[in-house]
Specification:
It is a single chain. The protein is mainly alpha-helical. The chain has helices at 5-11, 16-23, 27-34, 42-52, 56-59; strands spanning 2-3, 60-61. A two-stranded antiparallel ribbon has the order 1-2. Helix 2 crosses helix 3. The longest helix is centred in the C-terminal third of the chain and has 11 residues, at 42-52.
């Protein structure tokens, strides 16, 4: 799954560790999502969308269609 998490994180001056703390996940989870090695759960995607004040689809793209 493609995502804009790394770009959004940088725009808000968050480290991976700080973003992980804000989303209540590990830094390794943030790293894996940013690298496209792990797809976030739906609750995690909603939390990220709320944090960045965006729609889920503005952050994550399932690359279908």
């Amino acid at each position: 799954m493609k995502n804009r998490l790394k770009v959004l994180r940088a725009e808000h001056n968050y480290t991976q560790a700080r973003l992980a703390e804000l989303l209540d996940v590990s830094r390794q989870t943030i790293n894996a999502i940013e690298k496209g090695k792990f797809d976030p759960s739906l609750p995690l995607a909603f939390n990220a969308a709320r944090l960045f004040e965006l729609k889920i689809e503005d952050i994550f793209d399932d690359e279908q269609g």
